[in-house]
């Protein structure tokens, strides 16, 4: 009988989820629109792949590092007040914008 030369099995290590998160697709779309940016523009400014920004826009999980790069890139581009008003963003004193909350109708 020949002895198997198969390598020993590695011990199972529990899966550790990397740090990261998802961005709210509607908020990302509004932020891009208010700044007049496309997905490609944001990817270039944030120095990440276009597919990564596309995934983030669809609400898929991205790394913490990528989230920080996207947010920093959005902070570099000023918000157009006219467009922000049209898409329902409230402009803050520091030049950023936040999404207006709609009142629930009973």
Q: Give a short account of the largest sheet.
A: 2 strands, antiparallel
Q: What is the CATH domain class of the domain at 20-89?
A: Mainly Alpha
Strand order in the sheet with the most strands = 1-2
Shape: elongated
CATH topology of the domain at 20-89: the name is: 434 Repressor (Amino-terminal Domain)
Mean pLDDT: 83
Poorly predicted runs of 5 or more residues: none
Helix content: 40-55%
Query: How many strand elements?
Result: 4
Span of the ends, CA to CA: 78 Å
CATH architecture of the domain at 20-89: Orthogonal Bundle
Describe it:
The chain has a domain at 20-89: lambda repressor-like DNA-binding domains (434 Repressor (Amino-terminal Domain), Orthogonal Bundle). The chain has helices at 25-35, 39-46, 50-57, 64-76, 81-87; strands at 20-21, 62-63, 89-91, 97-99. Strand 3 and strand 4 form a beta hairpin. The longest helix has 13 residues, at 64-76. It is mostly helical. It is built from five helices and four strands. Helix 1 (25-35) packs antiparallel against helix 5 (81-87) and helix 2 crosses helix 4. The radius of gyration is 21 Å and the shape is elongated. The N and C termini lie far apart (78 Å). The strands form two sheets. The chain has a two-stranded antiparallel ribbon with strand order 1-2.
């Amino acid at each position: 009988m020949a002895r198997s030369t198969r390598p020993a099995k590695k011990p199972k290590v529990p899966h550790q989820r990397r740090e990261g998160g998802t961005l709210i697709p509607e908020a990302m779309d509004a932020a891009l629109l208010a700044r007049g940016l496309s997905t490609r523009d944001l990817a270039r400014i944030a120095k990440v792949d276009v597919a990564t920004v596309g995934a983030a826009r669809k609400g898929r999980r991205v790394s913490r590092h990528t989230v920080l790069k996207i947010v920093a890139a959005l902070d570099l581009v000023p918000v157009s007040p006219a467009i922000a008003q049209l898409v329902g963003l409230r402009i803050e004193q520091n030049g950023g914008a936040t999404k207006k909350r709609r009142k629930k109708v009973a």
